[in-house]
What we know:
Blueprint: H1 2-31, H2 38-50, H3 56-61, H4 66-81, H5 84-100, H6 104-117, H7 123-140, H8 143-159, H9 170-180, H10 184-197, H11 204-220, H12 224-239, H13 252-266, H14 275-291, H15 294-310, H16 314-327, H17 334-350, H18 354-428, H19 434-490, H20 494-519, E1 525-527, H21 528-541, E2 548-552, E3 557-559, H22 560-581, E4 589-598, E5 601-608, H23 617-621, H24 625-636, E6 641-645, E7 651-658
Parallel strand pairs: 2-4
Antiparallel strand pairs: 1-3, 4-5, 5-7, 6-7
Helix pairs in contact: 1-2, 2-4, 2-5, 4-5, 5-6, 6-7, 6-18, 7-8, 8-9, 9-10, 10-11, 11-12, 11-13, 12-13, 13-14, 14-15, 15-16, 15-17, 16-17, 17-18, 18-19, 19-20, 20-21, 20-22, 21-22, 22-24
Amino acid sequence: MRIIAVILFCLFNTNLCAQSFQIEAIESALANSISESEERYKLTVELGQMLRPYDSEVEKKGYPTEYFDYINDALIWSNKNGSLKQIAAAKRFEIDYYLSHREIVKFIALANEMITKDSFATLQDKHFIYTYLCFEYYSAGYLTNYIELIPEKYRILKALNKEPEASQNEFSDIASAYYAMSQYERARAYYKKAIVSVKEKNRPFFKASINNNIGLSFSREEQADSAEVYFKKALQLVSISNVKQEGFKPNYNEHFKNVINLNIAELELNKNNYNNAINALKKESISALDLGEINLYIEANNTLSHIYFLKKEYLKALFYINKAREAIPYKQFTTLLISNLQLESKILLALDKQEESEKVYNKMNHLQDSIAINKTKRSSEIAAILYEKNKNDLEIQIQKLKLLEKNNKISSQKQQQIFYLLFIVTLLLLLFMLYAFLRKTKIQKAEIETQKLAVDQSLIEKEILLKEVHHRVKNNLQVVSSLLSKQAKTSNDESVKKLMDDGQNRINAMAMIHQQLYKTENLERINLKEYTTLLVDNISDYTEFKANIKIDIPETTFHVDVAVPYGLILNELLSNSFQYGFKGKKSGTINITITKLEEHTYLLCVEDNGIGLPSNMEEKSKKTYGLSLIKGLAWQLRGNVKYYNKKPEGCAFEITFSDNLKENV
């Protein structure tokens, strides 16, 4: 037996060495290949295929940076000379590169582009991208987008003739998302669908897991009796299950019993019955450690510490909190680490160790703020990607409508040609065919009228669809705005709240554009005076200082591509004026005017009678995000920014912009 093991070990390492030599050979050939050539394209795609699946070193370090140059060359060549399949193969390697470097925002942007264009080299690639995109959406909290992708992910899996892993199920995945959103009733509905979907497959352990989740959903709603019914049902199913046969770890059965018993015991915590929970937690802690389930082990010890804290047995509480801390890997399980530090701070305070308690609390606060800032930044970047995706989807729908209209015109022209040809042929034939011809003409006219009515009806339906798209985009932006508002309320850091409020105002400015488009007949142009009035009212509602705002804007409409940056510029100027312009003043006036300078060129002027701009404004502007944003948006509108102090008091901002961006490109 020992000889066989040695042989297998040698064979395994020989294969790894052979693969390593092959990769080195391809890398060498790539380094010597011609840039943007077919040879480099083929070598790049081959290298990408050789590197899958990823090994642990790649996950730690990421692909070498020179790989990205090869990928870029491959994309350039395939876009110029290759097929759609060849382009998709190069993009798959680009996806792998972003994942290896954990550049998640870039991965999400490229994955959405590939899904929109249905650009995949193989069905396996499509499943891979859907799987990872689902994971990243769930991790980032974009659960609605996650739910939308789940059915297609499982359809692809079915097309590949593959069975899901033991713990995977379409309905169970959707239920978990609703559970994470605290929509417990909807979560239960999908958990029950999951049970029905495996009813004939005799999978008692999987059903036990689902029943446990249903029990947890009732527990979160403080329906202890219903929760206990499902927990006990889960225990019965575990007792008759064969975990190995269902694809789980052999010793997972006993551990899961401990988990369920703990859930039952926790129902009694409200009655100050701690002993059952303590015993269950200690059992779960041991079985979790045996299985290598580190996060469950940490949670169990954190909870033990919390219970001993409630019992005022502070030394035991401190023992278990330290035990949990020792198991937390560096820079991992940050949520568990935060709860661990928070509880330790309380325990130390209860032990009259105020100085140590404050140190732990400050450490927890710093970690929490850091996570919140990173999460907000990533969430904003993903929201921007999804906004662009929705915008692109809308453009695709418009292109389809134009193509349909073009096809209808071609069809109509062909019918007219046939009509004239038949007319001439009929005249050259016998006169007695005239009656038949006229009759046929009448029938054809009736058909054309019917088709015209059908086309008109179709156009009306498409217009309704476009309005609905604007309405949904507006709703999605308001959801993001609400999320920012809630995030701001949970933070004690005023700078974080300020960032959240600014982001919320910017998103509201964009949402109003789509609200205006939804309400008007014209789906591309905005009445700038009405939009400005709405934007001013919205910003005024969020400020304590009430200024007299005068608006002098002509009755004219602008394209949505102009209105969006205009709204963001005005939002920044008004927000800054309210926040900084009237410090120490009880009242003030803001004037907003738009003047036409020449054809397609306008001047926006926003001025106030506040305290004016600081003397070092030019130096400050280099470090100020708001002013940088205004300048960037003005450049986007083919204009520039000018600002100055007025006499005797106040300041003014003047922004020139064009209403015809296409001709100015």
